[in-house]
């Protein structure tokens, strides 16, 4: 038996695999009854990949001669895959707590945006901040996500808008990827708002003619690695034609399409996502029936963001209609200065209570389907042989407590493990 083993997690009361047949996503009944084992153990190799997962007795006998760098006795505890947050805006400067008060007093999101607040307020502060200041803000936010069980997060730019400020944000994301254990999928979101003094079509032109060629150049020189392209497709921001042009041009330079749509007003964003074979469309509070059908057919995932509807008191995304139609439903925190939540356990709870998902559906949406939305479900999102050994060990005998105990994840999560290495031990202070 090989000695190249990093971790044995033994005797867990439950191991939630989510998938056990190499599925790249789950829909319908697959989400309702995902794969789970009772009294099981799991092995991760020194390459960070899962080598075995199975009944505790079997793993015991198969690996009795093996030596491990670390052994965790998970008796009475549960193991689930690391959570995946498919939509975040974690790089920014400036504080918007005053806007929360204004929204509580009745101001709408768009009223603040059109009055120069919201995204524009954050753009103003982020543009002035140095890379060091932005990184100093980003680091603790990502570690907060990690402590809440997120092992892979999508991270957007989009508070720069002008090229230099966007590149600054993307470079800060890149630096965080090098420094911290959490996995990052990086997204260029230069079309997050129309910069002051420009029209949407002037901004679109600049993105097409200046931003994307520059990003392509930086990617080819290895100075930046960007995974996705995003646009805020919304009435009063970027319309369908501008959005289509930007997304297609992004796709042409190798970026995956993953954009904001149908949030505040119906704009046929879901239909556009299907037309472009987008990997994901986020929000979708105002999606049409036709949009749902088109997304189910094109295998464009829906990244639903329960915190947005909650904080803005919007109507809830139609999770049930999408799930029943066979759309690949994923979840994200939407962590940003408007929706200040970086806890996927809270997001899953809101998904269940407010969007009527079952707990199994919510976990599948926050693992394998979120990985699919980022084009990473071949390596992330389930506990299967040859996938990355990213997992959470819970101080409870049933995994559902992570969703049920609203806001209780701080006590429930005992370990967060990435590539078989403990990156958060709730009993110890980690050195990052
Ligand atoms: N809707 C657009 N973008 C963000 C909000 C960004 C902000 O308000 O700063 C979202 O996904 O909710
Ligand atoms: Zn967003």
UniProtKB/TrEMBL annotation:
InterPro entries assigned: Amidohydro-rel, HutI, Metal-dep_hydrolase_composite, Metal_Hydrolase
Catalysed reaction, written as an equation: 4-imidazolone-5-propanoate + H2O = N-formimidoyl-L-glutamate
GO CC terms in record: cytoplasm
Pathway linked to the protein: Amino-acid degradation; L-histidine degradation into L-glutamate; N-formimidoyl-L-glutamate from L-histidine: step 3/3
Protein keywords: Histidine metabolism, Hydrolase, Iron, Metal-binding, Zinc
Family under the similarity heading: Belongs to the metallo-dependent hydrolases superfamily. HutI family.
Keyword Iron found: yes
Name of the featured protein: Probable imidazolonepropionase
UniProt-listed Gene3D superfamilies: Metal-dependent hydrolases (3.20.20.140), Urease, subunit C, domain 1 (2.30.40.10)
Keyword Isomerase (UniProt): no
Enzyme Commission identifier(s): 3.5.2.7
């Amino acid at each position: 038996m090989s000695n190249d083993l990093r971790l044995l997690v033994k005797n867990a009361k439950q191991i939630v695999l989510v998938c056990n047949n190499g599925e790249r996503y789950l829909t319908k009944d697959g989400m309702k009854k995902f794969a789970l084992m009772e009294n099981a153990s799991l092995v991760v190799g020194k390459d960070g990949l899962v080598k075995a997962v199975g009944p505790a007795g079997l793993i015991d006998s198969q690996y009795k001669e093996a030596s491990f760098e670390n052994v965790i006795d998970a008796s009475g505890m549960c193991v689930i895959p690391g959570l995946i947050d498919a939509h975040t805006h974690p790089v920014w400067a400036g504080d918007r707590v005053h806007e929360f008060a204004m929204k509580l007093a009745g101001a709408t999101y768009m009223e603040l945006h059109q009055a120069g607040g919201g995204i524009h307020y954050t753009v103003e502060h982020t543009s002035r901040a140095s890379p060091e200041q932005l990184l100093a803000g980003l680091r603790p936010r990502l570690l907060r996500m990690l402590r809440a069980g997120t092992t892979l997060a999508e991270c957007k730019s989009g508070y720069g808008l002008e090229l230099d400020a966007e590149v600054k944000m993307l470079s800060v994301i890149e630096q965080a990827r090098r420094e911290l254990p959490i996995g990052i999928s990086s997204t260029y979101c230069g079309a997050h708002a129309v910069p002051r003094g420009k029209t949407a079509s002037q901004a679109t032109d600049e993105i097409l003619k200046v931003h994307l060629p520059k990003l392509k150049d930086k990617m080819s020189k290895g100075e930046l690695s960007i995974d996705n392209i995003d646009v805020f497709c919304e009435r009063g921001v970027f319309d369908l034609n501008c959005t289509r042009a930007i997304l297609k041009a992004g796709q042409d330079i190798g970026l995956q399409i993953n954009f904001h749509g149908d949030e505040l007003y119906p704009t046929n964003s879901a239909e556009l996502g299907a037309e472009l074979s987008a990997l994901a469309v986020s929000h979708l509070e105002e999606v049409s029936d036709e949009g749902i059908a088109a997304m189910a057919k094109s295998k464009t995932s829906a990244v639903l963001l329960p915190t947005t509807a909650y904080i803005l008191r919007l109507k809830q995304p139609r999770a049930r209609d999408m799930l029943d139609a066979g759309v690949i439903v994923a979840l994200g925190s939407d962590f940003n200065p408007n929706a200040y939540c970086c806890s996927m356990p809270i997001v899953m709870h809101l998904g269940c209570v407010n969007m009527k998902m079952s707990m199994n559906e919510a976990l599948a949406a926050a693992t394998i389907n979120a990985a699919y939305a980022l084009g990473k479900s071949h390596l992330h999102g389930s506990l299967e042989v040859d996938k990355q050994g990213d997992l959470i060990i819970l101080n409870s005998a049933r995994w559902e407590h992570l969703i049920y105990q609203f806001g209780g994840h701080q006590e429930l999560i005992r370990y967060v493990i990435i590539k078989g290495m403990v990156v958060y031990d709730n009993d110890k202070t980690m050195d990052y």
